[in-house]
Give the backbone structure.
Amino acid sequence: MQILILVKSGPTTGEAERALATVGQLLTQGHSVALFLLQEAVHLGRIGTGLPAAVKLRDLIEQGATVHLSTDDLRLRGFGLESADGAIRPGTYDQLIRLMETSDRVIGLL
């Protein structure tokens, strides 16, 4: 099953922690999981933050999760794609809509 998880909360929030834990559980159950980071959650995808959530995100990518980062939200916070990890895909709101249409389930852990 293809599952899309949307996260908008910052990297040090309970919502972000729950989202990352959920991604890990779904991957171990054999699901294909995509994570789309919006608003403050774009900080999870930035290089060099050293935050535990960013480390967990890297582990999830290595386990097979795909991660998309809202380029608009990143730019609104004063960062460019060069500050994002190379394993994270740039994402637009049009791409988010396509992901929502092609996923079997969409979960919002906002």
Notes: The chain has a mean pLDDT of 90. The chain has four helices and five strands. Residues 2 and 32 are 5 Å apart (CA to CA).
